[in-house]
């Protein structure tokens, strides 16, 4: 049984409504639950990453999906800050994966960009993610169809942004919890979420 402080359901709502949770959906047939949040700026995206880091623990798999420029690396930067890891979190596109060791007692952050990897889990096996996963938080950008077999439990973060010629910074971020690990994910845990205190 997981500790209450590591459960998304146990996270208190923030005092100031800088971001908003706009909905929740549960798919009991597939053991998933989803919360959708409105994020208005890169600063809020990074703050959301810090907030999410508060519910992560070693062994968690986080999958990030979204268009180029949606904010996946910005969110991961916030995760790294919240987890207290060493090194600047930048896009690992050209190195495929970066390991950020913890500065304290927390887990390492393994940040993977699977954009250039065409195969599924077979190609990902070269990265030894299954070895890293039990002791780390593994964050995979562009991992859909490639890393789901690593864990029955995962947090999928779907980032939607306006496409085309626009400078709109608003993003709709859906947190999709898959498996029993994320069964406590609920809208009340995130809304209103406090950007300043995240």
Strand order of the largest sheet: 1-2-8-7-3-6-5-4
Main β-sheet description: 8 strands, mixed
Q: Helix-strand pattern, N to C?
A: EEHEHEEHHEEE
Estimate what percentage of residues fall within beta strands. 25-35%
Helix share bin: 10-25%
Shape: globular
Q: What is the number of E strands?
A: 8
- The total of helices stands at 4
> Whole-number radius of gyration?
16 Å
Unreliable spans? 1-24, 194-198
Distance between the termini: 26 Å
Structural class: alpha/beta
Average pLDDT taken over every residue:
76
Could you characterize the architecture of this molecule?
With 198 residues, this protein is an alpha/beta fold. The protein has helices at 42-53, 72-83, 121-124, 129-132, and strands at 20-27, 32-39, 61-66, 97-100, 108-113, 136-141, 154-161, 171-178. An eight-stranded mixed sheet has the order 1-2-8-7-3-6-5-4. Strand 1 and strand 2 (32-39) form a beta hairpin. The protein starts with 19 loop residues before the first strand and ends in a 20-residue tail after the last strand.
Top keywords for this entry?
alpha/beta; eight-stranded mixed sheet; 16% helix; 27% strand; disordered N terminus; disordered C terminus
Q: Can I get a quick summary?
A:
This protein has 198 residues and is an alpha/beta fold. 16% of the residues lie in helices and 27% in strands. Helix 1 (42-53) packs across helix 2.
